[in-house]
Structures are given as structure tokens and as C-alpha cells.
Amino acid sequence: MTTENNTLNRRQLLTAGGAATLMATLATGSFADEKTHAEHHHAAAPNAAIVKAALDCLEKGEACLAHCLTLFQSGDTSLAACAVSVSEMLPVSRALLQLASLNSRHLTRLAAVCIEVCRACETECRKHAEKHAACHAMAESCAACVKACQTLN
What we know:
By secondary structure, this protein is mostly helical.
């Protein structure tokens, strides 16, 4: 029984210690954010411009979507189509980031899809760009991503 209790106590200690370490790390901001980490490792990579553009789309897209959701909570659904286009753009940009980082042989084909998705997102966001800074930033980011992807052709 003593061995079981010791094992259980060690497990509890390890679990609690791990959780405490994680919480302390999160609280102090020691985790490098996705953008900084990827830029650091891929600054000299063959697809550095695409990585940077994809990261920017992810950052601006999350901000734009958060803005849309805030408006939805207040009853304003005028950005519903914008939220849909951003929601479509986010997973494509995430995949673009991953394939560009890996210098994947499939990157060119995905970039062609990303160009279409980013153009649609840019078009939708431009409709609201004068009124909403998040939409303006998203549209600009999509345009830059299209430009970066076009370098593969």
C-alpha cells in the first residue's frame, strides 16, 4: 500500500508541477508566439516571404474574426460575409504556412488555392475597410499574401 501511495503521490506531484510550470510560463509570456517563432526559424528559408505573408494573414484574420464576433454580440450582423470569408481564409493560410515551412512539393498547388481564397477574402473585407480597421488590415494582408504566392508561378 505504501508503494501505491508513493506512486500516486509522485504522479500527483508531477502532474501538479507540470501544470504549475505551464501556468507560470503562460503568465510570464515565456512562450514565443507562433509568428515570432516561425519568422525566427524561417528568415532565410526558400519560402520566407510566403511564410511571413501566411503568418500575417493568420494574425490579421484572427483579429478580424474577433472584431466580427464582437459586432455579432451587439446584434450587428453586417460583417457576416466578412466573417465567413475570413473563416475560410484562416485554415488555408495555416496550411500554406506549414507547406511553405516544409518547402513541400505541394506548395505551388496550395498557393494557387490560397490566391483564390485570399482574393475573395480581400474583396469582402474591402467592402468594410473604411469603417473597420480590422477589415482594412485583413484586406491588405490578403493582397500581400496573393503577391507572395504569385512568386511561385
